[in-house]
Write a structure and sequence with these properties.
single chain, 761 residues, alpha+beta, Rossmann fold, 2 domains, three-stranded antiparallel sheet
């Protein structure tokens, strides 16, 4: 019986262990927050959209609605009909587990576990990428790292985050794994066009099979997400670089031509069978033709014995001519393709968190988001990328290395523009960190002494004497393993636990309770609760009984899926164009104007929450075209006269308290008369760092708002009426007339977390 396990068995055990660790992080840590009493809380906003589609799909399997009247009112909304694979895959699994008639509990439970399983499965292709790129141990380290890496990838693959993002990562990682294997075997076997005479014989069978598998997973990715052309761009960009390098080195481009065709042909076929998107179909056709055109250009120039240095120029000319032809044939399609490049555009002023630039998350430079996603891998991976580029410059242009470089640079560019794409970049960081770690371990093994010769088995074997190179070598290697663990892996553990334990985007108990109240205590918009599971066709005529439920757009999918009611707008932002109207309603200073918005939207109920008057208040202000500085501002004061320490305080202006959001949510729509009103004197100051700030110099109290306002108007200098307490109004407020409070739930500092109003017209 062998004393040690074979290396393959050790590798299998390690990868299986990392898979288990990945599952533990994604399932065990958020479990109590997801399976909360009788409820299953999904942990992503868009998860409720996908689960709404799945609700209907499992009841009508395999028929999928392309229109859903429940998504928004009026007008309804489209589903993922053009890119439905994620929903079909999930619904198919649920349908099979439920034996064709799954219960609501089965739908919710399987739906909650689904992203965690897909996220853990990503460990496997990451290992094979690391092994194919560098070495078995590089793959093992990369697999271990991606299993525990905090940030976007972990956050989007925890229990209940049932969104297509985790499927995107799994499909693209698997597609790139097979593409790497295809390129390696094609280059090693010197695959050429002549091998097509016998495609089922070596050396053609392996690279072409790997290429076809890469294309299949690329195709599944393409029918899972609207923006999936990103990885088509990655692969095409790689081919452009590799074709150029091979031509400059006078190497046959045949293997690239065949690999490209093998990848893009099945992807195009899968996409054409599922979706009718003109943009994506045309892009895939161009991607399929590109390797053929690049091969023809290389062969033509070689046959004419033209200087290889002219190839990039000829390539640029050919690309320009092709772009000009496309513009002449279909200028709209050309512009749509160019619009796809907006994925690399920076938007520092956006209120959408996931679309903020990686290094400017709040409009100011910060490394916090990078560290929160990758910890030490953020700079170790950059070292690995620099090493690979250096190796390429030294003429070691292994095609799979160049693929990793191009893949990383493109995804990095997208991530710098939009922090959400950290979930893609996690794979690259893991592989590159695994590469550097492996190089360190390899260096330690080489420095520790020469390899010992393999001895034949014998019954008696003498132990190495103390101080031999063998012992010194493994002592150094063991020490290096510990260092690599604590530098590359350990810093991720606590952050991973923190990320997986947070379900920031799950609805609270108060929200779930309020939405359940809506379902049970308000009229059915279509007269029959089972209409939620029907098949729908467009155009759709809403009955007179239909009505909308207005809330901030973040909560639209919750209203659809939990309450089975029709939101006025949703996170799809644009189904009805309602978001600006709802924003104006919430910050309106005039109840009549707010009532008109409700009437125009056909809404019968309005739902407000504590966040919309605190942490999210800036969003409706911004989208209504106003400035937050008109409603509140940060000031500083000194605790005592002569004190050097400054304390910041948020002062809320009268305009804040007059908004409909504050009148309805904070004060319950009741009339309010302040008991004391504060007038505040302030001056502009400059800090020692040259930063300008507002310092409170004096305050005066008055029994009524009118007296305080009169005092401020008559005084010279900078005076204003305000309050540091958002729940204590300095201005009198009238009782609302058009909104009747029907339900309130939760408590935050004496204010309900959620309120439900009926619009009485």
């Amino acid at each position: 019986m062998p004393k040690t396990l074979p290396q393959k068995a050790v590798t299998g055990l390690l990868v299986a262990s990392f898979f288990g660790i990945a599952l533990y992080l994604r399932i065990a840590l958020p479990y109590d927050q997801v399976f909360s009493g009788d409820w299953v809380k999904f942990t992503g906003v868009d998860a409720y959209w996908h689960m709404r589609i799945v609700d209907n799909l499992v009841h009508n399997f395999p028929h999928l609605n392309s229109f859903d009247p429940y998504l928004a009112f009026p007008g309804g909304g489209g589903t993922s009909y053009a890119f439905p694979f994620f929903d079909y895959l999930l619904a198919g699994v649920i349908w099979l587990i439920g034996l064709g008639s799954p219960t609501e509990h089965t739908v919710n439970t399987v739906g909650a576990y689904f992203p965690a399983v897909l996220g853990a499965l990503t460990v496997i292709p990451v290992y094979f990428i690391g092994r194919a790129m560098f070495d078995r141990w590089a793959g093992i380290i990369a697999a271990g790292l991606v299993a525990i890496m905090p940030g976007e990838f972990l956050g989007r693959s925890i229990l209940g985050f049932t969104d297509h993002h985790v499927a995107e990562v799994l499909f693209t990682t698997t597609a790139m794994m097979f593409l790497i294997l295809s390129l390696k075997s094609a280059r090693a076997g010197e695959l050429n066009l002549g091998h097509l005479r016998h495609p089922l014989k070596a050396p053609a069978v392996r690279p072409l099979l790997y290429g076809l598998l890469a294309g299949i997973f690329l195709g599944l990715y393409l029918v899972s997400w609207l923006g999936a052309l990103l990885f088509v761009f990655v692969i095409v960009a790689y081919f452009l670089v590799q074709f150029t390098l091979d031509h400059l080195q006078k190497r046959s481009p045949d293997y690239l031509c065949l690999t490209g065709a093998a990848v893009f042909l099945p992807a195009l076929l899968i996409f054409a069978l599922v979706s009718g998107s003109k943009l994506a179909s045309a892009s895939l056709v161009i991607a399929l033709l590109a390797p053929v055109a690049l091969t023809a250009l290389s062969r033509l120039m070689s046959s004419r014995q033209l200087n290889p240095a002219f190839y990039p120029l000829a390539l640029a000319a050919l690309g320009g001519a092709a772009a000009g032809m496309l513009y002449a044939i279909d200028s709209g399609l050309f512009r749509s393709m160019m619009d796809q490049m907006a994925i690399f555009s920076w938007h520092t002023g956006t209120t959408n968190l996931e679309m903020q630039p990686l290094l400017f998350p709040s409009g100011e430079f910060s490394f916090k988001v990078v560290w929160g996603n990758f910890t030490t891998g953020s700079f170790i991976s950059l070292i690995g990328l620099a090493l690979l580029i250096y190796m390429m410059a030294k003429k070691r242009d292994e095609p799979h290395w160049i693929l990793l470089i191009v893949w990383t640079l493109v995804v990095l560019a997208a991530t710098l523009a939009q922090r959400r794409f950290n979930y893609y970049l996690a794979v690259n960081v893991a592989v590159l960190t695994g590469y550097v770690s492996w190089q360190v371990l390899r260096g330690a093994a080489l420095l520790g002494g020469p390899e010992q010769p393999v001895q034949k088995k014998s019954k008696a074997r003498s132990a190495p004497s103390p101080g031999t190179p063998f012992q010194a070598k493994w002592a150094l290697v063991s020490l290096t393993v510990v260092v690599v663990f604590f530098v590359a892996l350990y810093p991720n553990i606590s952050k991973a636990r923190q990320t997986a334990s947070q379900t920031r985007f799950a609805p609270s108990d108060a929200w779930i309770g309020s939405l359940s109240w809506l379902e049970e205590n308000t009229p059915e918009p279509f007269g029959d609760a089972d209409f939620y599971y029907e098949r729908y066709t467009a155009p759709f005529d809403y009955p007179d009984t239909a009505y909308g439920v207005t809330a901030w757009w973040d909560y639209g999918y919750w209203i659809t899926r939990v309450a089975h009611r029709l939101p006025s707008n949703n996170p799809g932002a644009g189904a009805t164009g309602g978001t600006p109207e709802v924003a104006r309603l919430l910050v309106s200073q005039d109840e009549a104007a707010a009532a008109q918005v409700m009437a125009d939207l056909g809404s019968r109920y309005l739902v407000t929450d504590y966040q919309i008057v605190t942490g999210k208040f800036h969003a409706p202000v911004t989208l209504s075209g106003q400035s937050l500085e008109d409603f509140q501002g940060t000031f500083y004061y000194r605790a005592s006269e002569g004190s050097a320490a400054l304390t910041p305080v948020m002062i809320y202006f009268p305009e804040y308290y007059r908004t409909m959001a504050v009148r309805l949510h904070t004060f319950g729509g009741q009339a309010m008369v302040p008991e004391s009103v504060m007038a505040i004197s302030w001056e502009w100051r400059n800090s020692t760092e040259g930063i300008r700030y507002r310092e409170i110099t004096k305050t005066e109290s008055f029994p009524t708002y009118e007296e305080a306002a009169r005092f401020v108007e008559e005084e010279s200098g900078n005076w204003l009426v305000g309050s540091p307490n958002p729940s204590t109004t300095p201005v009198p407020l009238e009782a609302v007339q058009h909104f009747a409070l029907r339900h309130a739930e939760g408590d935050i500092g004496g204010v309900p977390e959620v309120r439900v109003y009926e619009f009485t017209g």
